[in-house]
Amino acid sequence: MTAVWWQGEARFCEGDDQKMGQIKAESMHRQETVLTETVDVQRHGNGLSLEEGKYLIDQLEQQQIPDRERLAALIRANCEELREYARGKARAIADRHYGKNIFIRGLIEFTNYCKNDCYYCGIRRSNTHAERYRLSEEEIMACCREGEKLGFRTFVLQGGEDPYYTDDRIVDLVKRIRAAHPDCAITLSIGEKDRASYERFFAAGADRYLLRHETATDTHYRRLHPSELSLSRRKQCLRDLKEIGYQTGCGFMVGSPYQTAEHLAEDFLFIRELQPEMVGIGPFIPHQDTPFAGEVQGSLELTLYLLSLLRIMQPDLLLPATTALATIHPRGRELGIEAGANVVMPNLSPVGVRDKYSLYDGKVCTGDEAAECRHCLERRVESVGCHIVVDRGDHKC
């Protein structure tokens, strides 16, 4: 039986137990092969010479986007020399568009209830070990007040798809934040909604919306999600958001189970088509209470390489150095900035709930106070020759 969260209470329905068992069995088998396969790809690439790889990167810079096969070849050719070549171009491009400015977003994780059951996510509805919480509206407003004092000019309200938060509640919350902080941007990251809901949130004062597509390949999407979720629905939500006028963010995991270079190439082509203002990517990190608990985490090197390629392909992107990067490497955020990122998203949530918003294992900065985290980030950003700015950090065309 699989727990389903609805209006804050648990009810039960028939889960796809057979499918869960199959996923776990496949995961155990994949543990024995994925490390060998990854090393082999990184060592031998796919036959591209260094010169051919540089030529394809130059094509990206000139906005001559290679086809799916050539993009996949470039991704497979990931090696130290190409990473360095792409990194140099990406950082220079970011500097031309945004200078040495790094924008900070105050992340407020206000609910970890979720009606969905994504196989990779630690707050999936079937995880009975998750300690569920919701912040009150007053707690959220207190986070915003503290954030503005610390120099944050964007608040990101992120949560699971929690049915308790009806459209009316979200609209009221957005209006309160907009009235109290008129000079700040409001970003929502609360999952798939009907177009009418997105329109209401936008009219209430929301500026941006983050909705990672996770993978742009339908067959891969279906291996990461239960059958009630679909890639076509996710893509339509992103198109609706763009049409309404949000600054829209999509993104994907790097190294998720069953992922291939062709899947990643398809992600790039989808991003090229969508033209989002923001793209968030980070390494897949397994969570102990999911069917993918035994899977190998995504590669730091590949994530940095793809960050650089994204910056080169779409120079004006707002591109975060994600918390997941900082989780798998002590200098993950700094390395991300050097690879072309220009956004960091420290946590403004109350310290008492941060470890409960556990999408993956080992998440960093769950115990730091907001001010401590802000000052630590400032020092880290300065160590790579950039600086945090007190600014909304809007997208620049």
Task: Name the average pLDDT.
Answer: 90
What's the helical proportion of residues? 40-55%
Structural class: alpha/beta
Radius of gyration: 20 Å
The tally of beta strands, per DSSP, is 11
Strand content: 5-15%
Q: How far is the first residue's CA from the last residue's CA?
A: 49 Å
Supply database-style keywords.
397 residues; alpha/beta; 6-stranded parallel β-sheet; 3-stranded parallel β-sheet; 11 strands; globular; disordered N terminus
State the gist of this model:
With 397 residues, the chain is of the alpha/beta class.
What does this 3D model show about the protein?
The protein is of the alpha/beta class. Helix content is 46%, strand content 13%. The protein has 16 helices and 11 strands. The strands form 3 sheets. A 6-stranded parallel β-sheet has the order 4-5-6-7-8-9. A 3-stranded parallel β-sheet has the order 10-3-11, with helices on one face. Helix 3 packs parallel to helix 5 (80-98). The radius of gyration is 20 Å and the shape is globular.
Secondary-structure blueprint:
Layout: E1 2-6, E2 9-13, H1 17-31, H2 34-44, H3 50-61, H4 68-76, H5 80-98, E3 101-104, E4 106-111, H6 137-149, E5 154-159, H7 167-180, E6 185-189, H8 195-204, E7 208-210, H9 218-224, H10 231-244, E8 247-254, H11 261-274, E9 278-283, H12 300-313, H13 323-328, H14 332-338, E10 343-344, H15 351-354, H16 370-382, E11 387-389
Parallel strand pairs: 3-10, 3-11, 4-5, 5-6, 6-7, 7-8, 8-9
Antiparallel strand pairs: 1-2
